Give the backbone structure.
Amino acid sequence: MSADLTHTGLTREQMARRAARDIPDGAYVNLGIGIPELVAAHIPPGREVVYHTENGVMGFGPPPPKGEEDPELINAGKKAITLLPGASFFHHADSFAMIRGGHIDFCILGAMQVAANGDLANWSTGAPDAIPAVGGAMDLVAGAGRIVVITEHVTKDGAPKLVETCTYPLTGRAVVARVFTDLAVIDVMPEGFLLREIAPGVEVDTVKRLTGAPLAVAPDLAVIEA
Amino acid sequence: MSADLTHTGLTREQMARRAARDIPDGAYVNLGIGIPELVAAHIPPGREVVYHTENGVMGFGPPPPKGEEDPELINAGKKAITLLPGASFFHHADSFAMIRGGHIDFCILGAMQVAANGDLANWSTGAPDAIPAVGGAMDLVAGAGRIVVITEHVTKDGAPKLVETCTYPLTGRAVVARVFTDLAVIDVMPEGFLLREIAPGVEVDTVKRLTGAPLAVAPDLAVIEA
Amino acid sequence: MIDKRVADPAAAVADIKDGDTILIGGFGEAGSPIELIHALIDQGARDLVVASNNTGNGQVGLAALIAAKRVRKMICSYPRSSNSRVFPELYRKGEIELELVPQGTLAERIRAGGAGIPAFFTPSSVGTVLAENKETRSFEGRDYVMERWLRADFALVKAELGDRLGNLTYNKSARNFGPIMCMAARTAIVQVSRIVEPGGIDPEVVVTPGVFVGRVVEVPNAAHESVLVAQGVTYP
Amino acid sequence: MIDKRVADPAAAVADIKDGDTILIGGFGEAGSPIELIHALIDQGARDLVVASNNTGNGQVGLAALIAAKRVRKMICSYPRSSNSRVFPELYRKGEIELELVPQGTLAERIRAGGAGIPAFFTPSSVGTVLAENKETRSFEGRDYVMERWLRADFALVKAELGDRLGNLTYNKSARNFGPIMCMAARTAIVQVSRIVEPGGIDPEVVVTPGVFVGRVVEVPNAAHESVLVAQGVTYP
C-alpha cells in the first residue's frame, strides 16, 4: 500500500483547525493527549471555550513561556499550563464527576482504531508485552457529551484505522460521533461511516480504499476548508 | 406506676456531665439534638474534642451571645453556633462521608426506645398521623464509631424506654453501645442490658423495675459521680 | 462570551415547567434561596417534585411554595420543625406526597446524580422501614441497601460570590446542599450575594466550578427566613 | 490537646507494616509526596499494595520504592510515562502485579472507601476487558459495571498548608488525589509545605478537614520529581 502514502492530506495543524470549528461557543471541553491538544489554538474568534483537564483544573490556558513552568500546574499530559481568569481547582473525584456526570460537553481524543459502529480503541495494542495504561479515556467516552476523534487516516504502516470491527481492546462501545483525519471528516451513523468532508485534492476513492469498512458518501459532500 | 416517678435521679445536666466523661481526648464527636447538646459544656478539663454537625461544620464552639447569632452559622438543631480556631465548612455529601465512612468517633443521641440487643428507635412513633422525619439519625447510627444514648429512663407516662424489643420504627439495628439515663449507666452486652453505674440514692431494684427487659448487674457496680 | 448572569430571579426561573423536579438548597433557613423560590411562586409552575432537606417555615420561601399547592411531592429528610405547619397540614390531608430519605442518603443520591453514578450501596437505613422494598446486599459480612441517584431538571441554590462563568463560593453553613445540588441539576440556578469578575474568586477557593452552574443572579440583601417568619410575613 | 504534627518523615511512616495497602497521592509529579516515599524506602516495609495514578519516574519517589522491590502490587490507571522504566521492567518480568483501573473509577473507588460506600455502579469500562468478570447491570436502559470501594491502611499525601488539627490546603493541580486519599486511609500521613496555627486557614478554604488526617509533617522545600530525574538522582 506504499502508493497510498503519497496521498495529499491535511497537516496536524489543519486537522486541529477543522476539528476546532466543531466546538460550540460556551462548551466545556476536554482535549486528549497528542493532536487533540493542538485544537485549543484554533478556536474560531468570538467563541469562548472552557478547558477541563482530568487532573483537576477547569479553565486553563496556553502553555507558559519557557522557564515559567510550574511543576504543580500541569494538564493530563503532564505538560505545564497557565490559568485563565475564572479557573478553578478540584480533586480527582470531583473532576471525574464532571466527566461521568455528563458535564463536559465535548471531548476530542486520539485513536488507534475506530469501528463503523463507533467503537473506539485507543489505549492498548493488547500485545502480551505491552504495559497496559488506560488513564481517563474510558471515563471520558462514558461520560462526555460528544466524543470525536482526531487521527491520521491510516497507521504508519498504511493500515486503516477506521475499521469494520476493532481488533485492539476497546476503550468504549459505540461512543465516537465523528472522526477528523488528514483525509476526511467522517461521521459515525447508525448505518456506518459517512464521508461528510474531504481534504482538498484527495479523491473519494482514495479515502474509500484507505478505510477498512464501507464508507457512504454524503450527498452534500464538502471540501474541508483547511 | 406513679410511685416510681418519685425516684431520685440525675438532672439533665448531671446526665450530660456523666456522658461527657466517656468522650476520649481527641475525639471527633457528633451530638444529637436535645440532652446530647448539653454534653459539650461538660468535657473534662485537659481533653480536646472536635464537634461535627451534619449540616457541614467541623470544630464549632458554644452558642454566641444573644444578638450575635448568624442565621447562616447553625448546627443540625438549627441553633446558632460559633467557630473555634481550626474549624472548617464542607458540603452535605462530604459531611455524611465523614459519618458513613467511620470518621466520627463518638455520637450521642436521644432515644424513644433502646432494645436489649442495641436496637434504637428515635425518629418516629409510627402513629398514622405523625409526620415522619428522620434527619441524619440513620446515617449516624450506621457510621459513627461508638453510639451512645442519653435519655430519661422512662417516658413521661412512666413506661420503660429500655425494652426487650422496640415497638417504634427502628433507626438502626444493634447500634447502641451504652445508655446514660437519669438513673443509671447501662451497657448493651451480647447478653443484653448490664447495669454498670447507678445514680446516687437509687436502688438497683428500682432500676430493674423501670427497665423493660432483663437487667444484669455488673459485679463492680459503681455509683455515678454526679 | 460565556455569560450565565441573569437580570433577576423572575428571569432566572422563567422556564421551569409544570411537573419538573427541582432541588432546593438549604438546611433550615441557612442557604435557602428565598428570592428564587418566591420568583417560582410568581411564575406559577405546578405539580412540582421538590427535593430539599426540610419543608420550610412560616408562610415564606419553601413553605409558601408548598402552601400555594405547587408541590406534588416532597423528597426530604426532615419535613417538620417548630415553625413548619404548612407541610404537615397538607400531608395529613393527603394532598402532598412524601418520600422520606435519611439525610446522608439524600445527600449521596444527589451527589451520585451529579457524578454519573446511577446506584450505590449504603449502610444507612438497613433493617428499618425506610429500606423496605429496596434491594439489600452483603459486602464483607455487612448488609447495605441499594439507593438510586437523584437528578433534577433544576436546582435553586443560594451562594455567596459568583462570576459570569458560574464559579461559586458559599457562606458558612449555608453551603450545605448547594454544591451537590448544582451538580445534579440539568440547570442550576443560583442566587449570589455578589457577582465578581472572572478571577475575582481565587481558583483554590472556588467551591462550585462554573461547569455545574447554569444561571447566576445577584440578590444583594437576601432575606432571612427567620426574620420574615418573626415579622409574620406571608408570601405572596 | 490534639496535635497531629510529627517531627519528620521518618517518624511519620514508622509504623507502616509489611503487607499494608498504601494510597500514594500525585498525578505525575504534581502532588507526589517524595519525601514521605523516601522515608518509607528507608523504613523498609515490603510486600506493599500501592494505589497511585502512575508508577513514578526515573529512580526517585514512587519509582524508587518500586525499584527497591517493596511493592507487591500496583493499583493504577497509567503505569507508564516517558521516564518510567522501573515498573515496566518488573512487570514484564512478572515481578510485580498490576490492577489496571480507569482513572475515574480509581478516584471514585477511593472516594467511596472514604465515604462508607462499599460498591457503586459506573458506566466507565462497560463492554471492555476491564469490566470482564465484573457484575454489570442496566439502569434506565444503560449498562453499568459494579465497582468496589478502595480503602487503605495508610495514605501518603502532599499538601500545602496544614495545622495541628490536620486541616489542609493544596497547591494548584497538586490537589488531585490528595483529598480523597486522606478520606480512604485508616491513617493519612501528609507532608505540607508549611504548618500554621489553627485558624491560620480560613474555614471556608479548608480543602481537607482534619478529621480525615492522621499525621502532618512539615517539609518546607519539597523536591520536584522532574528536577531530581533531570539531575539523574537515584534514591537511596
In short: The radius of gyration of chain B is 18 Å. Chain B has one domain: 12-223. Confidence is low (pLDDT under 50) at residues 1-5 of chain B. The CA atoms of residues 29 and 106 of chain B lie 5 Å apart.
